[in-house]
Description:
Order of helices and strands: HHH
Mean pLDDT: 85
Oligomer: single chain
Distance between the termini: 55 Å
Structural class: mainly alpha
Shape: flat
Helix content: 55-70%
Strand content: under 5%
Radius of gyration: 27 Å
Low-confidence stretches: none
Number of helices: 3
Amino acid sequence: MTIAADPALAADARSERRFFLALSLPALLIVGLGAILPILWIIRQSFLTTGDEYTVGNYEKVLSSGLTWSALITTVELSLGTLAFCILLGTPWRSPWPASGQGWPIC
């Protein structure tokens, strides 16, 4: 017998879902206030000037700076180098047959 076939079981399942939603609401509220609101505030502030006017001038200044692009290129180079190093270092220790649990000995 499925839940949909029995009205009493379906009502009990709905009641249980509402109960667990009510239990999670305080945590969702805390996450919303503690994490999401500050991020939204920072995004809003990034569009403001010192005279409290909304503009995209801050983004134009950052994106037209050579320092920004230099830092971005350096970041991408370092992350690709780290990825290549990890692949070269980790490949010999991978298991040829994952189900067997036997790989190369580390020691």
